[in-house]
Amino acid sequence: MFLSAFHIAKLYICDQIVKMSKKVLPYKESELGKKEQVKQMFDNISGSYDGLNRVISFGTDVKWRKRIVAFLKEEHPQNILDIATGTGDLAIALAQTGAKKIVGLDLSPGMLEVGKVKVSKKNLQDTIEMVVGDSENLPFDDNTFDAVTVAFGVRNFENLEKGLDEIRRVLKPGGHLLVLETSVPTKTPVKQGYRIYTKYIMPTIGKIFSKDRSAYQYLSESASVFPHGKAFNNILDKIGFIGIENKPQTLGVATIYVATK
Known about the structure:
Elements: H1 5-21, H2 34-45, H3 49-56, H4 60-73, E1 79-83, H5 89-93, E2 101-106, H6 109-121, E3 128-132, E4 145-151, H7 160-170, E5 171-182, H8 190-209, H9 215-225, H10 230-239, E6 242-249, E7 254-260
Parallel strand pairs: 1-2, 1-4, 2-3, 4-5
Antiparallel strand pairs: 5-7, 6-7
Helix pairs in contact: 8-9
């Protein structure tokens, strides 16, 4: 018996709900909450994070960040907030937009310390400020920033909708949110190859070159359950963003989302 289009759609929605409700944690035996575990994980891998990122993504993450910069260059933002800035790769790249002030915010002091060194080497310390902060409780007034960016960070939010709502709060009316996040390809054979790479090869590389054996397993698992594509568009719409677009990158292994307050 064939399923109707309605039942197929219903099954798809249920599958997305199950995936979204599945809480993936870096350290499954830990009693800490997700936020604390993510902080601990990134502190642990901060020294090797940049090098491993280049290897694991084959350098394509650099190209994806350049596309975010190219978009914002045309908007001429004066104040930018880069959430989950990590070691500051995107914050540093965003200096090319001509923004007067860029704030890089992250939970992990370890990652930020690496980022501060990179900012200093680029002589950008007067433009870029690196601060410890919680994406779900941003220490900024309403309507502060012309643009907010998040690269590979929203899937680490403990409460995704709360974090996105905070972003909308600190954005100025008409300001842009740009999110770069991993996604799961849908076309054969890329889908199958991606699954093998992220489930087996990526965690193995992480285990070999990082002292934290759980970190890259978590990064792989969290990417597989994140509500990407239209599912994430729908969440942005629910929060109140407008002009929402998703732009798949490199055969769908990542997506850039653009939304406006």
